[in-house]
Amino acid sequence: MVSARRPAHTPTSNDPQALAGWITSLPQRFTAHELAQIRQAGELAASLYSGKYAINDSPLLQHALGTAAIVAEMNMDADSLIAAILQAAPDLLSDWSDDLSSQFGQTVVGLIDGIARMSHIQALSEVDGAQPADNKHNDRAQQLEALRKMLLAMVQDIRVVLIKLAERTQLLRHLSGASPACQAQVARENQSIFAPLANRLGVWQLKWELEDLSLRYLEPQLYKEVAKMLDERRVDREQYITDVVAQLQHELTQAGVKADVSGRPKHISSIVKKMKSKHLQFNQLYDVRAVRIMVDDIKDCYTALGLVHHLWQPIPGEFDDYIARPKSNNYRSLHTAVSGPRGLALEVQIRTFEMHQHSELGVAAHWRYKEGAKSDAKFDEKIAWLRQILSWKDEVADHGDLLEQFNSELFQDKVYVLTPQGKVIDLPHGATPIDFAYALHTDLGHRTKGAKINGQIVPLHTRLENGHRVEILTAKQGAPSRDWLNASLGFLQSPSARAKVRHWFKYQHFEENVAQGRAKLDKELH
In terms of CATH architecture, what is 16-216? Predict the structure, then answer.
């Protein structure tokens, strides 16, 4: 699991002493050479960013160093910190790639380029919170899902995604001074795109922070109400949980069960989701007071459950056995709610240490459960593999091996492109503009006479790449070419597009045969 603590204090000015203080506050795992490189990046950023501001109106240097501090606390390497510091360089240096490559190496340049690509696609796509033309929630959800897939598919280095998540977290942490329109835009993007990405990649602490802070700006009144209700009873609730933990720990020890009992923090966004989904008021929630019991094996899980139900009365309808019947994402735990001490509702989660590790690192389907999306087995496998990389990172001496693995065949069976309106379309790898046209509408495919990629006219057999913005040029009365069915010419890759072209010609033959038959019949009759 990749985790993040609150970052160190970041300088708000270009004062060299302030920058030096920030450098010394970084984790003490970097070599002298790496610290020198980070310092050099900071000094360059101080020069480049002077008088510049991030979109939340924070000084750009403060924003960059704050992002880098989050990256550092995620146990990422020096190249990642340098890329986080200098990610705005492409907008400020005309020959940024060569300039930065000579100073910091090609790896840093590659990371910055990846971040820029993610930002570009994000800007082009429909992530402003507006509903699509048909105003259907499912279409909106599918579009967001396609965008998340495309963002991941475009990335050749997982560090790019993690740096981007850190940058979005930094934006939210310092969003209070921005305009209401900017606050809403940033919060919507984070809630729709980046929090789910953090979730699926196992960056749980950033995920919760992105969700909570997004809610703060999107539904400020509801956020304040829930936060106030939590805070009003916080001291009492914490003491209550402390007493429950002590009692459970004692009873489990007496029963000969080795266990780790702890309070389980509840996040405001999680509470709000449950209130909405179950149509409950705050005081009706069972899991505002929650504890977790972790034990060695499954037998002890049920022993602990029996003990909990012996101590306190179970609340009807609130027990779920996800060990006997795991969720579709293979999540396993026992969930129960009881009328605890003083008759207050208490949620208890019971699992083995192994189950806990699995739930923290998760499988790819876990984000689907959370987001209510359909399963896509191949994509799930790939995300699961990404999350394995995250869990292996601390155990592998040579991180380069992992990065080389990541660069292999990931996401090579799909390509994600954009319509002129910013809608994401996924196609088979190797797809062409004609495949794209048929994916949008059969008639559009039939009338295709040309195509533009990123504003440039291209041949119709051009292979599309992730992030391409595709525009189809049409004839008023067009028809597909037989050449499109010639596999050696490479016009079509999609089986569905090929089938539509074949059907068109088959229908034409039918019409011709009917016309010829009528002509012969008329001739015989006359």
Answer: Orthogonal Bundle (1.10)
